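User: I'm writing a tutorial on reading structure tokens. Could you give me a worked example: one chain, its sequence, then its tokens, then a sentence or two explaining what the tokens reveal?
Assistant: Sure. Here is the example chain.
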Amino acid sequence: MVGCLAVPELTIARRWLVEFVARPDPRVGRDGPVCPFVPAALRAGTLRLERGLVDSSGGLSGLVGVSDRMVEAFTTMVTGRNPLLRALVVVISGLTEPSLLDEVHVAVKSMIVERGLMIGQFHPRCTERAVRNSGFAVGRSPVPMLAVRHMAVHDIVFLDRKREWFAAYEDRFKSRYGPDSLLDPLYRAKWARARARFGSPVTAETVP
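And here are its predicted structure tokens:
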């Protein structure tokens, strides 16, 4: 599926990650880098950038296969001293319709979130908007890409929309939302609304 090839697409992708994603941008609507995860992963040397070649006739099923192999490759990565900072970004070559990445993201997200991971799609026509600025299409990248990483506490901004997503998030981060929590007020507000909507997920720890 992937290979660490010194091709122009990888150079373009790395430049975008370093010069845009890892830096502040006022259009995001908050302080700090566009993605809080990327600068730390770059510093730790735990972000791996690869190239994935797809058959344009494979359609959605072919891309689902790419994402499945990405997840398996991600789980076996050995990079750096902090495994929670691992990230795998795959530039998708041979894709004639970049918007298929939006469809594959919808198709596989629940399965990936259940494993405590996150997947993101990026391409030149991506319509994903910044959480604090709906006028900013933050997911637009110069080349089509899929990215997999571990779930992080700030992911409540993406995981408050479905019961199963919120349950996976709560299982890992509910202890961060005590009365003295110093988390971003936006995170706390989204968590509280999701808690009110879905209730506290039933886990093995809460079953009598």
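What the tokens reveal: Residues 2-150 form one domain. The two ends are 46 Å apart (CA to CA).
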